[in-house]
Amino acid sequence: DTAVSQTPKYLVTQMGNDKSIKCEQNLGHDTMYWYKQDSKKFLKIMFSYNNKELIINETVPNRFSPKSPDKAHLNLHINSLELGDSAVYFCASSQPLAGYQETQYFGPGTRLLVL
Amino acid sequence: EDKVVQSPLSLVVHEGDTVTLNCSYEVTNFRSLLWYKQEKKAPTFLFMLTSSGIEKKSGRLSSILDKKELSSILNITATQTGDSAIYLCAVVGGSEKLVFGKGTKLTVNP
Fold this sequence. Notes:
By secondary structure, chain A is mainly β. Helix content of chain A is 0%, strand content 55%. In chain A, strands 2, 4, 5, 6, 9, 10 and 11 form a 7-stranded mixed sheet that branches. In chain A, strands 1-3-8-7 form a 4-stranded antiparallel sheet, with no helix packed on it. Chain A starts with a strand and ends with a strand. By secondary structure, chain B is mainly β. The interface between A and B is medium-sized, with 22 and 24 residues.
């Protein structure tokens, strides 16, 4: 029973292309996230959605556009891919409790390689 | 700006050793501190520590939060090769998002 799933797991593409990564969670959580993990293993938040509404948007190039068709899905579309976009992208979800941030459950990650 | 610093950055031990990993933080309106274990891919959750739960234990792993010192430690006793991983510390403050440290890479040799 997969809690947070991402597709594809691996993505190899050429510079300049447009690609999408999909994320789905079956935990009934209200909040979903996209993280980027660079080659140094450092995780950095990119976006957060709560019930389909954008609540966190870090300083991320406009080429990155998240889309949440419903609260169980948060997709990431990337336009005009650049070499520096190569990284592992993690999706996560959580169910915030009053006053506290609940544990985030991570997907398996999508390894993106831009050539 | 919220900040999390982990030390050491890497650590090599032998099976059976006990290790202590450190995490210190600066965050506005602290809410919680989380420890994750990351092997090859996604981090997996270990512990969450809050003002109302400053000590957690699960098997050979335990963690303590020191709100006065703005820090936490993760202890692993009787280490095994399967404990080899990157251990990530993250805090949640008023912004309600996880701010991660850079991790401690633990290698347990047989």
